[in-house]
Fold:
Amino acid sequence: LAKTTQPISMDSYEGQEVNITCSHNNIATNDYITWYQQFPSQGPRFIIQGYKTKVTNEVASLFIPADRKSSTLSLPRVSLSDTAVYYCLVGAYGGSQGNLIFGKGTKLSVKP
Amino acid sequence: NAGVTQTPKFQVLKTGQSMTLQCAQDMNHNSMYWYRQDPGMGLRLIYYSASEGTTDKGEVPNGYNVSRLNKREFSLRLESAAPSQTSVYFCASRGLNRENIQYFGAGTRLSVL
Structure:
């Protein structure tokens, strides 16, 4: 199972773009990369997922290089409400694989 | 649509007591999971159930048992609670025909005195 490494914490200011990088050197061919966001006292919630290149949705962008050994979550123009812990997760697409491992996450603090 | 529902939301136990944390999902998902999260830590997988009728150990299964009662429900039991089991417990589910997106409940905050 691919494990991930992320920075423990990051600080930013409102209106800035934030990029959080995750390393997953032993990612498998059929693994997808998924990012979750967790606010205090809540369960994690899905943000974005990708397999290769770039994926964008209304919340974030995900950049994945050709070797797929890392990925970068990009949050455009963050606000105070983006203060949360962000988790990078790798795991197989579909199927019944159950054992998905979360890392320690990156605590993002957005300041006014 | 309730998603993943966990009960209770809060619980205080004395050392040695037993209890069962309940989890139910209404999304017809095949896979269900139990995680624990300690202060300042990430989520650690306790047990998971890839499909109805099957359960498997995760990273930290010691001191816990699980039951996949049916497709909807996945319970976590502490037979003899210990202070080291003080944590926030999250249940999650995942569908078979989607990418590996998990949907989480709101959590159960457990204190063992």
